[in-house]
Amino acid sequence: MEFVFQIAVLIMSIVIHEVSHGYAASMLGDQTARYQGRLTLNPLKHVDPFGSIILPSISYFLGGFIFGWAKPVPYNPYNLRPGRWSEAMVALAGPASNITLALIFGLLIRMGSLGPAFMEISAVIVFVNILLAIFNLVPIPPLDGSKLLFALFPEKLLELRGFFERYGLFLVFFFIFFVWQFVFPVITILFRLITGSNF
Fold it and tell me: Which residue of the set 18, 87, 155, 159 is catalytic?
């Protein structure tokens, strides 16, 4: 039951993450996500079989924690209002939604006036959303952090973007299997700072 519950929290958190991308793009002038029916909290519109089910299951049973992703909400960068930061703002909206959720439920935990069952639910929500925010801010394509990195690139280095995007998925898996273990302690530290307790 714990595994099923954590998967459910993960799915709803990544749905909110992806819908936030879509709304940010919509506010900046691109309605692609709206036209494709992706500005909805219906999980069936967003679930990716590998990223939302298989990978979280593997990470849970091998490492005791879960992480994953949903189908990316589509947007057309050429429809966004001009400005080199437009794409970065769309990318940042996803992790920002996860950080907001973590802070809200972390505050509820700190209030301490809720029942033990809700406290446990809130702790999982905080942990999963911190994990999603940190993971997605890694500056490797197709993760959101790469869009922030590319916005900082001077014009003469933009051709490197194609190279990183071409091999990004390999770099992501390299990061997961060889680097993530060194980043993961940051998540537990942030959890303690936000909730005032251990996970």
Answer: 18
CA–CA gap between residue 187 and residue 69 (Å, rounded): 17
- CB of 46 within 8 A of CB of 70? yes
pLDDT digits (tens, 9 = 90+) for 88-147: 999 999 999 999 999 999 999 998 877 888 899 999 999 999 999 999 999 999 899 999
Q: Per-residue b/e over 105-115, b at no fewer than 16 CB within 10 Å?
A: bbebbeeeeee
The pTM for the full model equals 0.90
Secondary structure in 3-state letters for 159-193: HHHHHHHHCHHHHHHHHHHHHHHHHHHHHHHHHHH
Nearest to 132 by CA among 9, 33, 1: 9
18 is catalytic: yes
